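Summary for the lay section of the report: proteins are chains of building blocks that fold into shapes. Here we show the chain for 2OG-Fe(II) oxygenase and then a coded description of the shape we predicted for it.
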Amino acid sequence: MTGAAEDDDYEAGPPSQRLAQIGEIVAARLTAAQGVQTIPVDGIEMFVRPDFLTVEECARLIAMIDTDSQPSSLFSEGADNSFRTSHSCNLDRWDEEVEAIDIRVCELMGIDPSHGETLQGQRYRMGQEFKPHHDFFHINQSYWADMEATGGQRSWTAMIYLNMPEAGGATDFPMAGISVNPRSGLLLAWNNMGPNGAPNLRTLHAGAPVIAGTKYIVTKWFRERPWI
Ligand SMILES: O=C(O)CCC(=O)C(=O)O
Ligand SMILES: [Fe+2]
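The coded shape description reads as follows.
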């Protein structure tokens, strides 16, 4: 959500010992976690946890997203309206069920909840999409000063698919040559940084247009430092 594809030689941010360490700790935790599978992707640390949420939990989150969502926003300057056409909302972090799910995600990742942004719900109707972007912050953008002061860089992303649209809506990683199909309750997690703790350009990804049906997801972005 923080910028479109960049040239290979573009420096999205400096190496960071802290982010490298977060990468190692979380990857080790996920590798050892029951029910988690490593996705063999060249140049990105990526994991899936099928059935992380039950069908009932997915249904309740979908209902909340339908009630609360508004047209999605973007961080990037000069962003155009076609870039992220979904509707989204912050899930109510004081709702008991949302809070419990949020904590479960943090526990799975082994990241203190203070580093996690509010869970975000997202709905894509037919034809809607999220064009190729990185989840990490681009430090040459005007929003960076504010983000740096409020928790810093985004380290890991955890996304949960709440349903399966009838067609389309995969999460594509064009530089890594992998595409993940929505499956109810499946959690997908990846490290937005490379081994040296610098932003990893290969994490470029997109929510492909939904061709038939509706797609619902929740996304959790983690920061390098406490966010609240
Ligand atoms: O909808 C998707 O599959 C991708 C969503 C995404 O990239 C995000 O929420 O940052
Ligand atoms: Fe994203």
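Put simply, here is one thing we learned. The chain has one domain: 17-75+88-223.
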